[in-house]
C-alpha cells in the first residue's frame, strides 16, 4: 500500500474531483493519509481562477519539495492549474506528475511511471469524460452533506474566465448515474446532496433537463434535501423555479452570480444578460419563492470599469439585498478573451477601493437580510456542534443561512425546528421550537 495525501483548492467541483481521485487510486493500492509526513505521494488538486490562487499553490509546491528532501515522495499537480500550465510545471523541476481534470483515470499509470524518476504528464481534455461510473470516496465530509457533479466543463466564454480553458467543453452526466449516486448517499446516511456544475441550468442528457433532474433527485425521499450550484442568470428558467416550489425538500436557495451591475461591463464580460434581465429573474424568484435565499459573485475593477459602472454595481447590491456575496477584484488570466482584447487598466488601488466599498455595502445588506428572518421558524438540518461550544448545534435553514442554537440532544443529520431570536450578518441565533 502506498500512502496518498491530497490537498484540495478551488471550487466545490474540485472537492468532488478529489473524491473521484481517491476512488480511482484506492483501487490501485493507494491508501489515503491525512499526514503529509508519511505520504509516498503528495498531490494538490489546484485552481487557476485568480492569480493569487496559483501563487498560493506555488508556495505549497515549494513546501512539498522540502518534504521530498526528508523522504522519497512523488509530487503531483492536478486540476485546473495543471491544465493551464502543462509542461511549465514539469519544467520547474519541482513536480513529478501533472494531470488535468479529464485525465484522472490515467493517474495509476502516471504515478507508476513517475516512481522510476521519469516525470509524467497527461493534460488531454475530453468531450465525454464525466466519471459517471465512479463512486466517489467521500472524505472530509460531515457525513450529512455530499457533493454530486452533474456536468463538467463550460461552453460559455465569459471574457475574464479561465474555466473553459482548464475544464474543456460542457458535457452532462448520465442522469441515471446521478440518481443512483444520490440514492446511495441517502442509504449511507447523508441527508443532503448538492448538484454541481458551472452552469447547472444547461444540464441536458437524453431528454432530461435540469428541472427534470431536480425533480427526480427530490423524489428519492422527502428526507433528502437537494441543493444545487451554480445558476447562470442567462439560463435559469421558470421551469426550474417552479420545480423548486413543488418540492419542499429542494432547498430554497439560489446562487446567482451577477459579476457587475453595469450593462456596458456585462457586455464586455460576455455575460449574456443585462442588469434589467437579472433584476427580472430576481423578481420572478421572489414572486414564486418568497422565502428563497439569494447569494452572488461579483468582480470589481474589470477592464475599463469607470466610477459610474462601479456605482451601478453598488446600486444593484442595494436594490437586491443578497444574503451573502463572494467578492473579488479582477485578476487577468493569460489566454482569456479579456487578456487578449482589453487592457487591465484599472489600477490596483482603485480595484481595492471599489472592492472594499462593495464589501462594506454587502456587510450592511447581509445584516438587513438576516434581520428579516428574526421571528421566523425554520426546519434546520443539523451539521454538528457550533464553532464556539459543544452545547450548541449548528445547521442550515432551507435558505442556506447558518443557524446556531443551544441543544445537547440532537445529532448531525437530525432535522430540528428552530425559531430565530437574533442574528449577526452571517448567523441566525435561534432556539429550538418544541
Ligand atoms: N460558473 C460560475 C462561476 C465560476 S468561477 C458562473 O458563471 O457564475 C467563480 C467566480 O470567480 C465567478 O463567479 C467570478 O465572480 C470569479 N472570477 C472568475 N474569473 C475571475 C477573474 N479573472 N478575476 C476575478 N474573479 C474571477
Ligand atoms: Fe466561467 Fe462564465 Fe463558464 Fe462561469 S459561465 S465558468 S464565469 S466561463
Ligand atoms: Fe478553480 Fe477550476 Fe474550480 S479554476 S474555481 S478549480 S473549475
Q: Would you kindly provide a written description of the structure presented here, covering whatever features stand out?
A:
Strand 3, helix 2 (51-70) and strand 4 (74-79) form a beta-alpha-beta unit. By secondary structure, the chain is α/β, with parallel strands linked by helices. The protein is globular and about 65 Å long. Helix 8 runs parallel beside helix 9 (238-246). The chain contains 14 helices and 21 strands. The structure holds S-adenosyl-L-homocysteine, iron/sulfur cluster and FE3-S4 cluster. Iron/sulfur cluster binds next to helix 6.
- Name the shape in a single word: globular
Cα end-to-end separation: 51 Å
Bound chemical compounds: S-adenosyl-L-homocysteine, iron/sulfur cluster, FE3-S4 cluster
Biggest sheet: strands side by side, in what order? 2-1-3-4-5-6
Q: Give the number of helices.
A: 14
Biggest β-sheet description: 6 strands, parallel
Query: How does the helix and strand content classify structurally?
Result: alpha/beta
Residues in helices, as a percent range: 25-40%
Rounded mean pLDDT score = 97
Question: Could you list the spans in which at least 5 consecutive residues all have pLDDT below 50?
Answer: none
Tell me how many strands there are.
21
Radius of gyration: 22 Å
Give the DSSP E fraction (strand runs of 2 or more residues).
15-25%
